[in-house]
């Protein structure tokens, strides 16, 4: 397991932990996400599972931004890429 960098976004930090089997991404866990208000929590509850699924499918940080969760998506992909870069 490799922790990605904590990425500060407009609404709070985003950080992921990536599990690899060799060079294959087998799991992505969110360690930090914006929790400053109810709306942020609602957006992240929707967006984070989609982002994790896309990361597993693409095996990279080249994933689509989730509509309505642009800042979280950007922070997620940056943290994911930093974990991949440590491999």
From TrEMBL:
Q: Which Gene3D superfamilies match?
A: 3.90.1010.20
| GO cellular component terms, semicolon-separated | membrane
Q: What molecular function does GO assign, one term?
A: FMN binding
> Do you know which InterPro entries this protein is assigned to?
FMN-bd (IPR007329)
Superkingdom assignment: Bacteria
Domain named FMN-binding: which ranges? 10-87
SMART domains associated with the record: FMN_bind
Name of this protein: FMN-binding domain-containing protein
Q: Name its species.
A: Leifsonia poae
């Amino acid at each position: 397991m490799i922790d990605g960098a904590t990425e500060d976004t407009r609404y709070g930090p985003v950080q992921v932990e990536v599990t690899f089997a060799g060079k294959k991404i087998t799991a992505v866990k969110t360690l930090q996400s914006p929790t400053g208000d109810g709306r942020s929590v609602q957006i992240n509850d929707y967006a984070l599972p989609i982002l994790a699924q896309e990361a597993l499918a693409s095996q990279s940080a080249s994933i689509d931004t989730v509509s309505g969760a642009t800042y979280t998506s950007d922070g997620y992909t940056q943290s994911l890429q930093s974990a991949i870069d440590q491999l």
